[in-house]
Amino acid sequence: MFRKSVPLNAVTLFSVLLLSLAASASDKRASDSDGKSPKSGSEKASATPQGRPAAIHRQLVRVWVHNDDIYPYVVRVKPGRILLVVENRTLTDITLIVERVLPGQARQLAARVSAVRKAIRVNGEFVLGAGEYVFYEESQPDVKGTIIVRPPL
To answer: pTM of the predicted model, to two decimals?
Structure first.
Protein backbone atom coordinates (compact mmCIF):
# COMPACT_ATOMS: atom_id res chain seq x y z
CA MET A 1 0.00 0.00 0.00
CA PHE A 2 2.82 2.45 0.84
CA ARG A 3 5.75 2.81 -1.50
CA LYS A 4 9.23 2.64 -0.19
CA SER A 5 11.36 5.69 -0.81
CA VAL A 6 13.89 5.04 -3.54
CA PRO A 7 17.42 6.22 -2.79
CA LEU A 8 18.96 8.56 -5.37
CA ASN A 9 21.47 6.71 -7.40
CA ALA A 10 24.06 7.94 -9.87
CA VAL A 11 21.77 7.54 -12.92
CA THR A 12 19.01 9.63 -11.34
CA LEU A 13 21.45 12.35 -10.31
CA PHE A 14 23.01 12.37 -13.78
CA SER A 15 19.54 12.71 -15.42
CA VAL A 16 18.60 15.63 -13.16
CA LEU A 17 21.91 17.33 -13.90
CA LEU A 18 21.45 16.94 -17.69
CA LEU A 19 17.90 18.31 -17.55
CA SER A 20 18.95 21.36 -15.54
CA LEU A 21 21.84 22.06 -17.93
CA ALA A 22 19.51 21.79 -20.94
CA ALA A 23 17.00 24.16 -19.30
CA SER A 24 19.66 26.75 -18.48
CA ALA A 25 21.06 26.54 -22.02
CA SER A 26 17.60 27.15 -23.56
CA ASP A 27 17.02 30.08 -21.15
CA LYS A 28 20.34 31.58 -22.25
CA ARG A 29 19.42 31.18 -25.93
CA ALA A 30 16.05 32.85 -25.29
CA SER A 31 17.66 35.81 -23.52
CA ASP A 32 20.26 36.13 -26.30
CA SER A 33 17.54 36.31 -28.96
CA ASP A 34 15.51 39.05 -27.27
CA GLY A 35 17.98 41.75 -28.24
CA LYS A 36 19.62 42.27 -24.84
CA SER A 37 22.96 40.79 -25.77
CA PRO A 38 25.17 41.47 -28.79
CA LYS A 39 24.68 39.25 -31.82
CA SER A 40 27.10 38.01 -34.39
CA GLY A 41 27.05 39.38 -37.93
CA SER A 42 25.20 36.37 -39.33
CA GLU A 43 22.42 36.71 -36.78
CA LYS A 44 22.02 40.42 -37.50
CA ALA A 45 21.52 39.78 -41.22
CA SER A 46 18.08 38.19 -40.93
CA ALA A 47 15.54 39.44 -38.43
CA THR A 48 13.07 36.65 -39.23
CA PRO A 49 13.73 32.95 -39.74
CA GLN A 50 14.19 31.83 -43.32
CA GLY A 51 11.02 30.71 -45.04
CA ARG A 52 8.72 32.83 -42.85
CA PRO A 53 7.74 36.28 -44.09
CA ALA A 54 7.77 39.17 -41.63
CA ALA A 55 4.38 39.86 -40.07
CA ILE A 56 2.50 42.72 -41.71
CA HIS A 57 0.59 44.95 -39.35
CA ARG A 58 -2.90 45.76 -40.54
CA GLN A 59 -5.78 47.35 -38.72
CA LEU A 60 -9.15 45.64 -38.66
CA VAL A 61 -12.20 47.63 -39.70
CA ARG A 62 -15.50 45.74 -39.55
CA VAL A 63 -18.61 47.16 -41.25
CA TRP A 64 -22.14 45.73 -41.06
CA VAL A 65 -24.43 46.43 -44.03
CA HIS A 66 -28.17 46.12 -43.31
CA ASN A 67 -31.11 46.66 -45.67
CA ASP A 68 -31.58 50.30 -44.63
CA ASP A 69 -28.51 51.11 -42.52
CA ILE A 70 -24.76 50.77 -42.29
CA TYR A 71 -22.82 50.42 -39.05
CA PRO A 72 -20.60 51.87 -37.58
CA TYR A 73 -21.16 55.46 -38.59
CA VAL A 74 -17.61 56.59 -37.74
CA VAL A 75 -14.35 54.60 -37.62
CA ARG A 76 -10.99 56.04 -36.55
CA VAL A 77 -7.75 54.40 -37.69
CA LYS A 78 -4.08 55.24 -38.23
CA PRO A 79 -2.64 55.56 -41.73
CA GLY A 80 -1.47 52.29 -43.25
CA ARG A 81 -2.74 48.87 -44.19
CA ILE A 82 -6.43 48.23 -43.43
CA LEU A 83 -8.25 44.89 -43.42
CA LEU A 84 -11.88 45.73 -44.17
CA VAL A 85 -14.34 43.00 -43.19
CA VAL A 86 -17.83 43.57 -44.59
CA GLU A 87 -20.68 41.72 -42.88
CA ASN A 88 -23.60 41.37 -45.30
CA ARG A 89 -26.95 41.32 -43.47
CA THR A 90 -29.07 42.09 -46.53
CA LEU A 91 -29.33 38.56 -47.98
CA THR A 92 -28.47 40.06 -51.39
CA ASP A 93 -25.30 40.82 -53.34
CA ILE A 94 -23.66 44.06 -52.16
CA THR A 95 -20.73 46.27 -53.07
CA LEU A 96 -19.19 48.53 -50.43
CA ILE A 97 -17.55 51.64 -51.87
CA VAL A 98 -14.84 53.56 -49.99
CA GLU A 99 -14.07 57.05 -51.33
CA ARG A 100 -11.57 59.67 -50.18
CA VAL A 101 -13.09 63.05 -49.39
CA LEU A 102 -10.99 65.98 -50.64
CA PRO A 103 -12.22 69.52 -49.87
CA GLY A 104 -13.33 71.32 -53.03
CA GLN A 105 -12.79 68.25 -55.23
CA ALA A 106 -14.76 65.24 -56.37
CA ARG A 107 -14.38 62.11 -54.26
CA GLN A 108 -11.72 59.61 -55.29
CA LEU A 109 -12.40 55.88 -55.22
CA ALA A 110 -10.15 54.29 -52.58
CA ALA A 111 -11.57 50.75 -52.46
CA ARG A 112 -14.40 48.54 -53.63
CA VAL A 113 -15.38 45.33 -51.84
CA SER A 114 -18.10 43.08 -53.28
CA ALA A 115 -20.06 40.26 -51.67
CA VAL A 116 -21.50 38.10 -54.44
CA ARG A 117 -23.75 35.06 -54.31
CA LYS A 118 -25.27 36.44 -51.11
CA ALA A 119 -22.03 35.94 -49.20
CA ILE A 120 -22.34 36.75 -45.50
CA ARG A 121 -18.77 38.04 -45.09
CA VAL A 122 -16.12 39.38 -47.44
CA ASN A 123 -12.67 40.84 -46.79
CA GLY A 124 -10.72 43.52 -48.59
CA GLU A 125 -7.22 44.76 -47.85
CA PHE A 126 -5.91 48.16 -48.87
CA VAL A 127 -3.80 51.10 -47.71
CA LEU A 128 -5.29 54.40 -46.50
CA GLY A 129 -3.37 57.62 -46.15
CA ALA A 130 -4.24 60.38 -43.69
CA GLY A 131 -7.57 62.04 -44.45
CA GLU A 132 -11.29 61.41 -44.39
CA TYR A 133 -13.11 58.68 -46.29
CA VAL A 134 -16.78 57.81 -46.72
CA PHE A 135 -18.14 54.32 -47.23
CA TYR A 136 -21.55 53.24 -48.47
CA GLU A 137 -23.32 50.36 -50.14
CA GLU A 138 -23.44 50.99 -53.89
CA SER A 139 -27.23 50.69 -54.19
CA GLN A 140 -27.78 53.11 -51.23
CA PRO A 141 -25.34 56.02 -51.65
CA ASP A 142 -27.26 58.19 -49.16
CA VAL A 143 -26.60 55.81 -46.24
CA LYS A 144 -22.97 56.50 -45.35
CA GLY A 145 -20.31 55.93 -42.77
CA THR A 146 -17.02 57.75 -42.27
CA ILE A 147 -13.45 56.53 -41.81
CA ILE A 148 -11.18 59.12 -40.23
CA VAL A 149 -7.49 58.39 -40.76
CA ARG A 150 -5.24 60.41 -38.46
CA PRO A 151 -1.52 60.00 -38.00
CA PRO A 152 -0.35 59.22 -34.45
CA LEU A 153 0.58 62.30 -32.45
So the answer is: 0.62
